[in-house]
Write a structure and sequence with these properties.
- By secondary structure, the chain is α/β, with parallel strands linked by helices.
- It has 5 domains: 5-204, P-loop containing nucleotide triphosphate hydrolases (Rossmann fold); 212-394, 3-Layer(aba) Sandwich (Rossmann fold); 412-506, Winged helix-like DNA-binding domain superfamily/Winged helix DNA-binding domain (Arc Repressor Mutant, subunit A, Orthogonal Bundle); 540-621, Orthogonal Bundle (DNA polymerase, domain 1), CATH 1.10.150.80; 631-733, ATP-dependent DNA helicase RecQ (Arc Repressor Mutant, subunit A, Orthogonal Bundle), CATH 1.10.10.1390.
- The strands form 4 sheets. Strands 3-4-2-5-6-1-7 form a 7-stranded parallel sheet, with helices on both faces. The protein has a 6-stranded parallel sheet with strand order 8-13-12-9-11-10. Strands 14-17 form a two-stranded antiparallel ribbon.
- Helix 23 crosses helix 26.
- The radius of gyration is 32 Å and the shape is globular.
- The structure holds adenosine-5'-diphosphate and magnesium ion (MG).
- Residues 18, 21-22, 25, 42, 44-50, 181 line the site of adenosine-5'-diphosphate.
Length: 734
């Protein structure tokens, strides 16, 4: 072609303003210009786009860029036009968002030879009229961005990607450059086979992200830990990924209630809200975005300081891609994932009903996630190994397992046993089956192969299946054994493994972590606070002191004790140890009014108690639950404040009186003062009000409605009793 390295550098400077190429960029571009196929594996932010943009500008003809990210095409095209002094026609995109006139403009520019780069969504590429159009122009090369979408073993499979090769050969052959930021060896081979580019030159950059810290936590109280983490990392931007939209909404609200500026993002929100929330995150008007995996593709925020996986992801590819959004500027990036085996079972359940092959793949990917999560080995080592890369260091110094190493033991004999078994089975079985044999597990597969009478069956029974799976995983990471990616992961022994087997040497292995099988995560977030108040139990000594303080205060003020603070509130205090009014307000059932009215002696008492007993207060863990997630709540408070007739509230919100009373009770019960006198006066006589009021003030031993009904029910209706109880609680309690 006659384009030299000097030409490339000139073009790099003049079009893009960069002085030097990053990583492999130059070699990749030269390979493409020479007319060869190229396969580029480069982490996110590595500079893949330039690998096709620059040669597209230099080569005769039009480069076709296939990318699934329709939303980003416009940006990319605008950027290119900007580099080339706004020559509109130089770059175009063709996707479903264009109207007829716009499509015609693209056609004209293409046919006139103006256009150097044409971005297309895969589904537009498959359209007849587009194929016919492309047949009429000279194609310089095809770039397949996000090429992992070709493989069903990738984290983002798109069936249309499978048709690319056929269409390309229909339109006319030209060199192909495929690019991706995540590809396991299996996905890599799928891509090359599917695009018919098995002899492409492969350019693989290291995927190691040194600055990222990886940690897996047991998912026992994730909400609380997340609040704690964010409060310890105040002012930093972060993303929290959840698997369901519902969880996204709940968690975002929960964070807001706890004083953290957070917004939700998921595909169920309308596009205006989505882009507004995204912008607010980019502009740092909110600290945290809680999102499904719909968020993040193409987001270029360099200073995301943490990525939290509230739910364990479906595959390590997805996990790596999502964690990769932290610390793109090379600075701090903390990646924390919450793991519970129960979530894995949930994910397996979601796969039910899908085609069997898809289920098999999904299960295999999940298994890798489980292995990663439960492992005690260096996380970086496992991740890089998963993507076909070696990480030679013993200790990466930047993951939970390396910073807090777990017990190690000499696993020489165990490893040798595994290798012997694999060899004796002629390398025809997968990990679980082999582990089951050694652990002496009896199931139908084992029996169907007659492996329950295999000489090694049950030889390692005392150690259990999990242990043997862990040994196998470490054997994989150490390259003593390997997986046949073509055959659903059948294990075979590598030459190093054979050498080791013939002459075993000491081999330090780590024990796997034990994760609790059970957690309460399904509990509604709304109940968490109440739960921690009642079932977890606080400090019993302090609790007793708080109760007697409550008696004192009630007596002084001539109020029933339960009006001052309910038991759940006191219990919460004995857990959270609030020592300021601000902190006290975070306790269950304590609103602004209650805290100011009754709080002082309580925080004094707690403060003294904390000091005398040298208690480590969980100050940064004071958590307030979303007491009532009803969207009507705010509406009701506002309307009652404005003295709107209750009939109007009922009809505009389509509620029953019972529902409205329940809402109002919950509002008042959580400590908000609400003046409902305008309504009560309208529906009840003064004597009735006074009579019920007096009952609560003088006679009632608690706020129990049942007791009140027993006592007063023959004279007054339930609605009347409830209304006065609300008035009473609000006036005296809040
Ligand atoms: P990827 O697609 O690999 O995630 P991009 O192509 O979006 O990465 O590039 C990431 C960033 O790196 C962009 O901001 C881009 O302008 C920048 N970049 C690319 N090549 C160079 C270079 N040679 N020198 C400096 N910056 C570059
Ligand atoms: Mg890219």
């Amino acid at each position: 072609m006659g384009i030299t390295s000097v030409d490339l550098h000139k073009a790099l400077k003049s079009y893009f303003g960069f002085d030097s190429f990053k990583g492999n960029q130059e070699a990749i571009i030269l390979n493409l210009i020479e007319g060869n196929d190229s396969f580029v594996l480069m982490p996110t932010g590595g500079g893949k786009s330039l690998c096709y943009q620059l040669p597209a500008l230099l080569l005769p003809g039009t480069a076709i860029v296939i990318s699934p990210l329709i939303a980003l095409m416009k940006n990319q095209v605008d950027a290119i036009r900007g580099f080339i002094n706004n020559q509109e026609g130089i770059a175009h995109f063709l996707n479903s968002s264009l109207n007829k006139a716009q499509i015609n403009e693209v056609r004209t520019d293409l046919l006139s030879g103006k256009t150097k780069l044409l971005y297309m969504a895969p589904e537009s590429l498959t359209k007849e009229e587009n194929i016919a159009l492309l047949k009429q122009i000279k194609i310089s090369f095809y770039a397949i961005d996000e090429a992992h979408c070709i493989s069903e073993w990738g984290h983002d499979f798109r069936p249309e990607y499978r048709r690319i090769q056929d269409i390309v050969s229909d339109i006319g052959e030209a060199p192909i450059i495929a690019l991706t930021a995540t590809a396991t060896p299996k996905v890599q081979s799928d891509i090359q086979k599917n695009l018919g580019m098995l002899d492409a030159k492969v350019f693989k950059s290291s995927f190691n992200r040194k600055n990222l810290y990886y940690e897996i936590r047991e998912k026992s109280n994730p909400q609380k830990e997340i609040i704690k983490f964010i409060k310890q990392n105040k002012g930093k931007s972060g993303i929290i990924y959840c698997l369901s939209r519902k969880k996204v909404e709940e968690l975002a609200e929960f964070l807001c209630v706890n004083g953290i500026k957070a917004l939700p993002y998921h595909a169920g929100l309308d596009s205006t809200t989505r882009s507004k929330n995204q912008d607010m995150f980019l502009m740092e008007e909110v600290e945290v975005i809680v999102a499904t995996i719909a968020f993040g593709m193409g987001i270029d925020k360099p200073d995301v300081r943490f990525v939290i996986h509230y739910d364990i992801p479906k595959s390590l590819e997805g996990y790596y891609q999502e964690t990769g959004r932290a610390g793109r500027d090379g600075r701090e990036g903390q990646c924390i994932a919450f793991y519970s085996y129960k979530d894995i079972l949930k994910l397996e359940k979601f796969m039910q009903g899908k085609p069997i092959s898809e289920q098999e793949i999904g299960k295999q990917l999940l298994l890798e996630t489980v292995a990663y999560s439960e492992s005690n080995q260096c996380r970086r080592k496992i991740l890089l190994n998963y993507f076909g890369e070696d990480f030679p260091d013993e200790n990466c110094g930047n993951c939970d397992n390396c910073l807090h190493p777990k017990k190690r033991f000499d696993g020489k004999e165990d490893m040798a046993l595994i290798i012997e078994l694999i060899l004796s089975m002629k390398e025809q079985f997968k990990a679980e089956h082999l582990a089951n044999i050694l652990a002496g597990v009896s199931n139908s597969t084992i029996k169907s192969y007659n492996h329950h009478i295999h000489p090694m069956y049950g030889i390692g029974k005392d150690k259990g299946v999990k242990f043997w799976l862990a040994i196998i995983r470490q054997g994989l990471v150490l390259h003593l054994i390997d997986k046949d990616i073509e055959k659903y992961g059948l294990l075979f022994v590598t030459p190093e493994g054979k050498k080791f087997y013939e002459n075993p040497t000491p081999l330090m292995l780590t024990e796997d972590r034990e994760f609790a099988e059970y957690n309460d995560d399904d509990e509604d977030i709304t109940n968490i606070g109440a739960k921690s108040g009642s079932s977890e139990g606080g400090d019993p000594v302090l609790m007793a002191m708080l109760k007697s303080e409550r008696n004192k205060v009630a007596k002084q003020r001539g109020l029933p004790t339960w009006v001052v603070f309910g038991d759940p509130s006191l219990e919460d205090m004995s857990i959270q140890y609030p020592i300021t009014i601000e902190e006290l307000k975070n306790c269950q059932g304590v609103g602004e009014g209650k805290a100011k009215k009754f709080g002082e002696p309580f925080i004094k008492l707690i403060s003294k108690y904390v000091e005398e007993n040298e208690i480590d207060r969980p100050t940064d863990m004071v958590i307030k639950s979303v007491v009532n997630r009803s969207a009507n709540k705010v509406y009701i408070i506002q309307n009652i404040d404005r003295k709107i007739p209750w009939e109007d509230i009922l009809s505009s919100k389509d509620m029953t009186m019972d529902e409205l009373l329940t809402e109002v009770e919950s509002i008042v019960g959580s400590g908000t003062k609400l003046n409902i006198n305008y309504h009560i006066r309208q529906v009840m006589d003064d004597e009735v009000i006074d009579d019920i009021y007096l009952y609560f003030k003088e006679e009632a031993g608690s706020d129990s409605l049942k007791d009140a009904m027993n006592e007063l029910g023959s004279d007054y209706s339930e609605e009347e009793i409830r209304l006065v109880r609300i008035k009473f609680m609000s006036e005296l309690g809040n």
